[in-house]
């Protein structure tokens, strides 16, 4: 049997994972000396309320022990573990370490998706579908890699202090902190491990034109899954969705970011992402 594992970067909760017959390990956030497993112990709404008090949150990945326990529970199965982008989280490295301790390590396939949130969610959906179709493990891994090789993410933060504090910016990107009155577009570095400046525009209209130009140059169309994720900024997310759907004639899904990604992108941030189906 093939088991699909992932983490809450997919914006799936552990309960939703059970409904889909997959295993979701929660990422965690800590603030005010208390740690919460996102979705299980704290919702995005509750988390945003706590932030209003001025608390500074910190995020963390599933422990190596948790991963080892899960892997050990399925020693007779093939395991495909789809992790959030290595570098943006330590989840991939932890999973690799946990895998190395298992006697059935050759049956555990830890995949660095190089992405997060919307595209990560899609990869899990694709894996589930392929398993249901009876496709073999190696074929599934190859099919997932085709999608992983063609994905792009843009992030527009509203409060730059969260990204700077998280330490996931290149030095040049960190220097943008004083430009908050402008619309700064961030994207992942080529290896997916950090965020860097893509462009800085005076208005959201200009930012949308820049992101759409990139999408069109890359040939993004109905053959891609496109998502807009937001941190309590539904009005802006709907604005982005409407423009993308009009310009590209593609369906766009709106997702609500989890506490861990609000910790990184800050309240009000909006992400536009695409991945090859």
Automatic annotation (TrEMBL):
Name of the protein: EDD domain protein DegV family
An example of a GO molecular function for this protein is:
lipid binding
Q: In terms of domain of life, where is this protein from?
A: Bacteria
Species this chain originates from: Amedibacillus dolichus CAG:375
Q: Does the keyword Disulfide bond apply?
A: no
Q: Does the record's keyword annotation contain Transmembrane?
A: no
Q: Which UniProt key words apply to this protein? A: Lipid-binding
Family matches, as Pfam families:
DegV (PF02645)
